[in-house]
Amino acid sequence: MRMLKILFKNETVFCVAFMLAVLSAFAVSPDAVYLTYPDYRTIALLFCLMIIVAGVQSIGVFAIMGQFLLKRAGSFKGISAVMVLLCFFSSMVITNDVSLITFVPFTILVFRMSGKTKRILRLVVLETIAANLGSMATPIGNPQNLYLYSASEITVAEFAWAVMPYAGLSFVMLLGIVLAGRDEPLLDVAVKAKMEKTGGALFRQTLPFLMLLLLCLLVVFRILTYLPVLICVMAVVLLVDRKLYLSVDYFLLLTFLCFFIFIGNIKRIPEVSGFLISIVQGRELLTGILTSQIISNVPAAILLSGFSTDFSALLTGVNLGGLGTLIASLASLISFKFFAREYPDKKGAFMKSFTAWNVLFLLVLTAEALLLGWI
User: Fold this and answer.
1) Percent of the chain that is helix, strand, coil (3-state, to 5)
2) How many CA atoms lie within 13 A of 46 on its CB side?
3) What's 185's DSSP letter?
4) 308-350 pLDDT, tens per residue?
């Protein structure tokens, strides 16, 4: 029982998805059709991208990049801009959660000696927003993008129109907020880069993962099929560093699988399926935003996609839906946990600041969607 409580606390979304899948199985008895439910291409791509990013991260590429840029920023405003932009642009490739795992602890380390907790708090909140909104700009930036782009037939141009106007405005807003802040020098605050690898050694270690990433991108853009690339990734990782298999978030993959089963079963119940279609179709953006506030945007994307025909609007909705509550994007919990561990007495202050800034961005970007005709 204790293990179940721990599992539910740490993997709440998976547990909910599992229970929904099991309950739906009582309404639709398991049969051969169940095998057609999952989008195997999306699950394979998620696995490959997670293990590739874990490999690059284990080499220390992201930390070295951050340290290199920080050496060239001599003030609080300069470092704040660097960190926010690192989260914004890196999330487009390494996903929003990995970006936050990499750079939020780095930010806290840099400013821990400054004693300016309030300023660190706001910066971590802005980094979180930057990672969540920057990740929307590419098909591999976050799991919901990868799934919706993979499962639908939307073109690159349609994808860009669904996300780039909001990513662009987000970038302007984030940069404006950071640069409008009060500036001051950061004296005696430094992070020493521990360079254990030469440039040549670092490149040689990174090259296999870059090649694998290229293969995955070719699958994302429907140039290659996923099965040969999956086999290739698994074989290369087995040869290079088999410990990376332990870095994969298997609960996320299982969450996708459970939601696929639940949605597949619901679609076979005409009354329920018809009701959900009537609610979702034509309201994809609003339902994407609102549903994300409750169950987070990744499961919202999987759930609503089964009852929608407008994947572009849904794509916009679940990405904007990552703003708002702390659970709207599960990546946000990463920042909260890192900050709460260092400043346990500031949890309430973090929640207030996080909610205020997220609601501001959500209102502005939803207004943009209104002007662009999505609503």
Assistant:
1) 80, 0, 20
2) 26
3) B
4) 889 999 999 999 999 999 889 888 988 988 888 888 888 889 9
